[in-house]
Amino acid sequence: xxxxxxxxxxxxxxxxxxxxxxxxxxxxxxxxxxxxxxxxxxxxxxxxxxxxxxxxxxxxxxxxxxxxxxxxxxxxxxxxxxxxxxxxxxxxxxxxxxxxxxxxxxxxxxxxxxxxxxxxxxxxxxxxxxxxxxxxxxxxxxxxxxxxxxxxxxxxxxxxxxxxxxxxxxxxxxxxxxxxxxxxxxxxxxxxxxxxxxxxxxxxxxxxxxxxxxxxxxxxxxxxxxxxxxxxxxxxxxxxxxxxxxxxxxxxxxxxxxxxxxxxxxxxxxxxxxxxxxxxxxxxxxxxxxxxxxxxxxxxxxxxxxxxxxxxxxxxxxxxxxxx
Length: 324
Ligand code: MLT
Description:
With 324 residues, this protein is α/β, with parallel strands linked by helices. Helix content is 45%, strand content 19%. It has helices at 2-25, 42-58, 73-80, 94-103, 139-148, 163-175, 188-196, 207-215, 263-278, 280-288, 301-321; strands spanning 31-35, 62-66, 88-93, 115-131, 154-157, 181-184, 202-206, 219-224, 250-258. Strands 1, 2, 3, 4, 7, 8 and 9 form a seven-stranded mixed beta sheet that branches. Strands 5-6 form a two-stranded parallel sheet. The relative contact order is 0.19. Bound molecules: D-malate.
């Protein structure tokens, strides 16, 4: 019995030492950060800005791999079912982590109990945007027009369960026009290209990819679905100011990895994310695009996991009932 106790104690010490050694050495090679959408969309933009600085802290490159498909769930499934060694993580968002469970009954991952939340990278306010030649001049006209022409208008989104799909699904439910022709893209990067060239009519998207195009006058923004205007687009009214106060939704992007990641690895990633978000240059790039900087609590695994769960619960009834 004594021998067994000693044996267990020795094993525990070995595991503890191995963990310590891992913390000192991790990462010894590049880390893959999966972006579950095409390049040029908000998830890709935030991932590249944050990964740039995290790579410096970690001493190894965070390599972005775009794995698009099924509203981002293909890429997230690959990341959170990878070996829990810290070499595969993902940048996901409100869609892949909170909307997907209610959208995909056979979802291959469980964002609440089956993955390791690492931290929130940024809040990303939602804008209702349209091609610049779209007839409605403001949000009130947009609402009237879409209701009267629901057979004719085209919406662009990044696939079922994506943020663009989720947020426009909530908007359409509020307007009482749940069914509208929709064109699904592999990300809102390519969707935005088609909006700029006038091939689709409107989209709901995260501010970071649309802000520059709105400022350049290449598309128009009817409203931002937040309580306050964004400093990045001060001329765009809130939905409350523009006459649709009940339409409010906050999106976000954050990092997660497989369940079972060693604590030391999680700690290193969390510290690297925190350092990136505190870096003046990184912060400036994110703020210029309209990102809302996460609080200290939201940057922690527990704070981020709580946000994922809260939003999943909030979205579940509407998304379960939405036409797919
Ligand atoms: C979304 O609609 O979920 C995102 O905008 C997709 C993306 O990041 O491209």
